[in-house]
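Hi W., the flavin mononucleotide complex you wanted:
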Amino acid sequence: MSLFEREFRDCLGRFPTGVALITVMDGGSARAMTINSFSSVSLDPPLILWSLAKDSHRYDRFLNAQDFAVNILAADQAELSTACARSDDLEANGGRWTPASNGAPLVEDAIARFECRRHQVFAGGDHEIILGEVLNVDRPRDAEALVFVRSGYSKI
Ligand SMILES: Cc1cc2nc3c(=O)[nH]c(=O)nc-3n(C[C@H](O)[C@H](O)[C@H](O)COP(=O)(O)O)c2cc1C
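Structure:
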């Protein structure tokens, strides 16, 4: 990694974010990926985005999924976040879920969930920017959010 890249990452890391699991169904199994690139885009129509690394082994699975969900994690779900950064088998990682109306897995115990349909994909350097149209939202639990800052988990 170049000196610039190190410094760029460290500067980005000073911007605290929430942590979410992007979830999709693939061949009957629930798959998840930990992300912090989630962002709101538009209220009307309701649109959100997240970005997917092009060098991810999960690239095809997550890029091709027409239906997905964004599950915002609570402060007590850091372990699930770490597990879903390592591997994408949601159940093996201890994640409990129910299907959304679009079929995407909704993680139980998340603090907010967005049921989405892939709307558009934009080129973003070494990532793809995935824009999702939000079909449904809910807040299954009232708890503090999990926060990611300076390469580690924190809470407010
Ligand atoms: C807090 C956190 C945030 C992350 N955010 C993103 C993200 O926004 N986009 C992404 O492609 N990967 C993100 N990752 C990395 C993936 O979760 C995962 O670790 C990576 O894709 C692993 O490589 P693989 O997909 O080749 O198995 C993040 C990881 C962590 C721990």
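The first helix runs from residue 3 to 12.

W.
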